[in-house]
Amino acid sequence: MSSFVFPSPRVTDPAQFGRVAVLLGGTSSEAEVSRDSGRNVLEALRARGVDAVAVDGIPALAEALVQRRFDRVFNILHGHKGGGEDGVVQGLMEAFGMPYTGSPVLGSALSMDKVRTKQVWLSLGLPTPRYVRLLKGDDVHAAARSLGLPVIVKPANEGSSVGVTRVFADADLDSAVELAIRYDGELLMEQLIEGDELTVAVLGDIALPSIRIVPKGQWYDYHAKYVAEDTQYLCPGLEGAAEEEIRDIALAAFRAAGCRGWGRVDVMRDRNSGRFYLLEVNTAPGMTSHSLVPKSAGKAGLGFEELCWRILEQTLPEETLA
Predict the structure, then answer these.
(1) In angstroms, rounded to a whole number, what is the distance separating the alpha carbons of residues 254 and 263?
(2) Residue 135 to residue 266: CA distance in whole angstroms
(3) Residue 280 annotated as binding?
(4) Judgement on whether residues 219 and 264 belong to the same structural domain of the protein
(5) Which of 27, 90, 108, 252 is the most exposed place for a label (fewest CB within 10 A)?
(6) Is 273 a catalytic residue?
(7) Is residue 251 part of a domain?
(8) Which residue segment(s) compose the domain that 34 sits in?
């Protein structure tokens, strides 16, 4: 796409990165997806001559940090509770002065908490579906009445569509909550926006082309994301002013949440009104064969190896020149 002009790479010699830990796996509910992503990143960096080594999980990283075995970290852990998107591992790396890819402590922790991300967006006038924060013992039926069916019930701190249920009838609310409470943290009940499901990748200060996701089934669930081969990804997902608007909103949402480096912002577009609604920010998005950031980057002219290089470059000091 001719509208995307990327600056020249800041470095051309892979030796300038030193030894790189590709942090993957861990113990979150998204660990296997992370391992798949990590293998792809590792292969891409090595293909470009980078001295990259896989490190599985936070305890292994902590040991490596103490022993000063690496010069920087490419974080591709997903999720929380042993994943790398909740600010915990970012704090560990900050304490050791270790450069790392992706968002800092605040942006990571805030984005993992969907309720508090919404609170920040709403305070700035950014659009997001109406919601109710559910605590243990709350009346879910009353909450659904306040929002109006249909609604979505999901854990407030999980990704990859884990624990998510779309509820169209009051009788199905209890089973939706039963599924969501299997995961740690608060629950979120959200107004269901019916329409197009879109996502916008962010690389540095650039919002890449949007992707409209068209699953063969009714919903873009875990199976459609990581298993199915018949999900369609239309990129760019929109045209003209609508494409510009969604990219502007996504970049504003990313910055408002304290994020940096790279990530992905998920958005719904209401079928009737055409309005956009922000859903969440992913601060360490998937890099699998089904993943969306590589698809969008490719449309903008960046191949997978170049994308990984550009992400890793962000760990270098600003004054580093090619």
Answers:
(1) 8
(2) 25
(3) yes
(4) yes
(5) 27
(6) no
(7) yes
(8) 14-101
